[in-house]
Amino acid sequence: MIVRIMGEGQVRLDDSHFPELNKLDDELLAEVESGDLDGFRRTLGALLAAVRKLGTPLPDDALEPSELILPAPDATIDEVRAMLTEDGLIPD
Fold this sequence. Notes:
Helix content is about 45%, strand content about 15%. It has three helices and four strands, in the order ββααββα. It has helices at about 20-35, 35-55, 75-85, and strands at about 1-5, 10, 55, 70. It has a four-stranded mixed beta sheet, with helices on one face. It starts with a strand and ends in a 9-residue tail after the last helix.
């Protein structure tokens, strides 16, 4: 799956990594819903770090359609709230 981190670029992620990423996504959803700003910032950073670590970066000139778009590291809780679905940022 091709994942875009807004403001950074794209990575190719193997589907086998999504259970791990979904755990972080569930935490992030709960923190956004409760308004836990410190937890939100920590978990968003952990989620994006995991995507960077587990994924293979695509070249900047690659024109692959992104199947999943994640917020920028400096996104606000309100910006992320607007991106959420009932499954969070990452569909189950």
